[in-house]
């Protein structure tokens, strides 16, 4: 038996661990002789059977016993254990027998319902097939895509049932319903003029195509956009329906639903991520002894997994080498590295600034020229392409920036001398920032045009009523065009890039073509694509209530596009990422996109004056003004309570209590982390130090 030196044993967390409740309980059991009874009990399956057989007498208050399938026994021993449990039921009272039987029946019914619901799960067979052929890393992407389909579908049901359906019912007089339009008060007449650019007279096919792609024309006056919902109050029978309040509450509801669902899904991934973030020794052991993915059945995927494990081990060794190299650097070398990183970050900031300025100029140019062309009654075939190009100019510039900037970042990161794992994370975070910040710059450009007023008439309305008589619909059209163009780009890359490349690699034996090979199926890049589209959906739903339906259809089609692309036209990435960490990373980036969506929506609802010519909030200064207006109609006591909750006298103590609770949980998490570290040290010591060893009997 090997013993460690005395000073090493003294460093073990003995004193702390001996204060744990489990240790104290063990001492008490030893004092009462309970330990001797357990030592005398037979070990292995026989001991389990004996203990389980006497459980009803020893624990009379226990209603249910553990199922036999939960014990590490053979089938024959489990059958004997089950017979023992059934024979011991006669020792229970009638009430406890009925309770145990009903509990078993309920568990069986719930298990069967859960099994039945798994067959109704969307794309269950397809995702299992992908997991079997390409591993859990790629399967996590398709599971994430399924989650977004379900999320957008539920958001669509929410907006349709609370906003769109009541408007349709009241406008067509269904179910003995009626509606009222209250003309705005104390508003200048020129602010209430809104003439949608609907098609009049003979309309050519390309005009319909332009309207379908840009959201103008006949689509502008449909339920797709904000300007359609101009009803102030509805009556279905004798019940009044407040559409402005329902519109605002539906917006808060889908944002809260998205936040809660994302946080709920990310909790499991966060726990798994903590488990995998171990010390280097455990990382090596996990890769060597538990790194194989037993879901893989395809030989090519198996060879890819071999290369992946080899690559991960090489990365770990490279990181260890870089740590040693970093520890051996002189002060001069450190200063050179820091100056180089500062210089590269300045280049990154310059690239971002160029992207943002290009988007701003493209948006301003598109808005000015699009509004000029829309004023004409028609558009000739000659100007059709030019007009469509002008309207889609911001979307094209954003797509170009999303393609060029990541390539520059991937090139510059090589000179910053980071570890391979940190290089990947930093590049991904820069790409996330580019994609999501581009949407923010587009909205800022739109708001700068909407808020620009040079005349007194414009100041009376609070926004640029000449160019944007219904500015919410204009923003909705921009979000609609971004979503449509994003889908067109994904489909075009699949049809005109991946398929020709696959044909060239398959049928052409030229060395340059074979050297290029097939395009890799990058999980992170594909995830950033759909998160970018989901952020657009979150922002645009307030301005276009049926945009989640378009997003649902879009992601539904993208699933099959990506599946065909993965199986037939692309190859899995040579550097795959772990499924647990990837799921957590996907949800974190999605949460960042949701937080970004809160900012423009909050500004639009609470700060920018609402349009006075369209929409449900045309009688209010801002969209948020409907909330205090509704509260003013409540009884006096309830109104005082609500205003008290919204006052500083309640907010400050509430904030302090929340801070105290947060500090408590932070301290508790730190204590748990310290306990885990000390228990891990004990596991290392238990093999060598006799103090931690179990006494032999």
Task: Please explain how this structure is put together.
With 697 residues, the protein is mainly alpha-helical. The chain has 4 domains: 69-120; 137-277 and 470-621, no CATH class; 347-375 and 382-452, no CATH class; 649-696. It contains 27 helices and 5 strands. A 3-stranded antiparallel sheet has the order 1-2-3. The protein has a two-stranded parallel sheet with strand order 4-5. Strand 2 (233-236) and strand 3 (239-241) form a beta hairpin. The chain crosses the membrane at residues 147-169, 245-263, 338-360, 392-415, 427-447, 479-497, 584-608, 650-671. It is a multi-pass membrane protein. Its main location: membrane. It holds the Pfam family TMC. Residues 41-51 have a biased composition (Low complexity).
Lay out the secondary structure.
Blueprint: H1 6-10, H2 14-17, H3 21-32, H4 34-40, H5 45-53, H6 55-58, H7 75-87, H8 94-119, H9 124-134, H10 136-171, E1 177-180, H11 205-214, E2 233-236, E3 239-241, H12 243-276, H13 280-290, H14 299-327, H15 331-374, H16 381-391, H17 393-412, H18 420-451, H19 456-461, H20 471-507, H21 511-516, E4 519-521, H22 523-540, H23 547-569, E5 570-572, H24 579-606, H25 626-631, H26 636-645, H27 648-685
Parallel strand pairs: 4-5
Antiparallel strand pairs: 1-2, 2-3
Helix pairs in contact: 5-7, 9-10, 10-12, 10-22, 10-23, 10-24, 11-16, 12-24, 13-14, 15-17, 15-18, 17-18, 17-20, 18-22, 18-24, 20-22, 20-23, 22-23, 22-24
Summarize this entry quickly.
InterPro entries: TMC (IPR038900), TMC_dom (IPR012496). This is Transmembrane channel-like protein. This protein has 27 helices and five strands.
